[in-house]
User: Which sequence fits this backbone?
């Protein structure tokens, strides 16, 4: 793997990854699961990017930032200098979050969930677990389907 695309979170991103940049909307991550020997299986999470929030204009003015292009930078998560250049204003000082981002996890058939996948699934709003069961597994699926 090219180290230039590996991030501190341990995930490798391709150079054409549409999730890179300030305009990204979703974070898609994957981790390997423990399935049958010789069968490679993965789980995935899809998480919305936290919304930029709205500028609290009164707070921004109090900190010395009048409405300008600086508001756009603050909404993108970047700190700016106040208008007279005497202090730095940080996004968390002037932004109000409008909603909590949602997270979806999809876990394919497996024997157990390794720690990296379990960590990815933490705080998921919805999790789908795909699995195949048979009579050999000790479960009569037809009885479940009949109710």
Assistant:
């Amino acid at each position: 793997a090219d180290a230039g695309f590996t991030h501190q979170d341990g995930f490798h991103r391709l150079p054409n990854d549409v999730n890179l940049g300030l305009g990204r909307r979703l974070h898609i991550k994957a981790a390997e699961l423990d399935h049958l020997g010789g069968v490679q299986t993965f789980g995935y999470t899809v998480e919305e990017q936290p919304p930029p929030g709205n500028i609290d204009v009164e707070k921004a003015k109090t900190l010395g930032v009048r409405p300008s292009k600086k508001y756009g930078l603050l909404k993108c998560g970047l700190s700016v200098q106040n208008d007279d250049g005497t202090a730095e204003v940080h996004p968390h000082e002037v932004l109000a979050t409008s909603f909590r981002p949602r997270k979806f996890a999809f876990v394919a058939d497996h024997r157990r969930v390794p720690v990296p996948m379990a960590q990815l699934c933490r705080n998921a709003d919805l999790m789908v677990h795909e699995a195949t069961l048979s009579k050999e597994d000790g479960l009569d699926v037809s009885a479940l389907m009949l109710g």
